[in-house]
């Protein structure tokens, strides 16, 4: 290939990073959608007022999503900066001009190969570190997605239980009122009987 070809272009690590970056962006989009659905659920008119613990949990998940998004963009920007720097360092034209005054073609080629080999080693090391960070971020986001799904199911369960609780409370109040009427009637009848007995 040409001596001016950048060191990282077309490498398997570079393609792997691009694939993982797209996948992480998709996961971030899904996580954002789940957070939006949770917020819409808490703001809907048919849902009773939630307690402070659930609101705190919702805010906590929003903060975690913001942290993951910031960390992903930071990692991606660092990788792009490293790749750009490696491309600049891997430009061989400057090396060719500097080695024109060298002692021979063989020595020049050997030194060029050694320098390119060192560049490749440094690039592989940096890419492996970046990929490990991206994989850890992906695992954290996957676990976070499972937690959000479980919380959403619990919130739906609570929402379904509230109408049943309200109907049970209404039945209890009706029975209390009926018992009060019955007790008042019995006391009234007993009082009338006592008065009749006292006057006769």
UniProtKB/TrEMBL annotation:
Species for this entry: Asarcornis scutulata
Protein name: Golgi SNAP receptor complex member 1
GO cellular component: cis-Golgi network; Golgi medial cisterna; Golgi membrane; SNARE complex
Spans traversing the lipid bilayer: 181-199
Predominant location: Golgi
Higher taxonomy: Eukaryota, Metazoa, Chordata, Craniata, Vertebrata
Protein localization: Golgi apparatus membrane
GO BP, sorted A to Z: endoplasmic reticulum to Golgi vesicle-mediated transport; inter-Golgi cisterna vesicle-mediated transport; protein transport; vesicle fusion
Membrane-topology annotation of the record: Single-pass type IV membrane protein
A Pfam family annotated for this UniProt entry: V-SNARE_C
Family, similarity comment: Belongs to the GOSR1 family.
Alphabetical keyword list: Golgi apparatus, Membrane, Protein transport, Transmembrane, Transmembrane helix, Transport
GO MF: SNAP receptor activity
Task performed by this protein: Involved in transport from the ER to the Golgi apparatus as well as in intra-Golgi transport. It belongs to a super-family of proteins called t-SNAREs or soluble NSF (N-ethylmaleimide-sensitive factor) attachment protein receptor. May play a protective role against hydrogen peroxide induced cytotoxicity under glutathione depleted conditions in neuronal cells by regulating the intracellular ROS levels via inhibition of p38 MAPK (MAPK11, MAPK12, MAPK13 and MAPK14). Participates in docking and fusion stage of ER to cis-Golgi transport.
């Amino acid at each position: 290939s040409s001596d001016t070809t950048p060191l990282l272009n077309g490498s398997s690590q570079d393609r792997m990073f691009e694939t993982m970056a797209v996948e992480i962006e998709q996961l971030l989009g899904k996580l954002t959608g789940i957070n939006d659905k949770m917020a819409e659920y808490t703001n809907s008119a048919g849902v009773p007022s939630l307690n402070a613990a659930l609101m705190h949990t919702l805010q906590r998940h929003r903060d975690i999503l913001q942290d993951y998004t910031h960390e992903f963009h930071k990692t991606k920007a660092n990788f792009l900066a490293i790749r750009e720097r490696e491309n600049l360092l891997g430009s061989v034209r400057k090396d060719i001009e500097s080695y024109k005054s060298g002692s021979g073609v063989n020595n020049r080629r050997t030194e060029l190969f050694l320098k390119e080999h060192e560049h490749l080693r440094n690039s592989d090391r940096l890419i492996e570190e970046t990929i490990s960070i991206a994989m850890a971020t992906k695992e954290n986001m996957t676990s976070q997605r499972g937690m959000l799904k479980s919380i959403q199911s619990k919130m739906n369960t609570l929402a379904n239980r509230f109408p049943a609780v309200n109907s049970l409370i209404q039945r209890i109040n009706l029975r209390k009122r009926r018992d009060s009427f019955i007790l008042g009637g019995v006391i009234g009848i007993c009082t009338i009987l006592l008065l009749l007995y006292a006057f006769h």
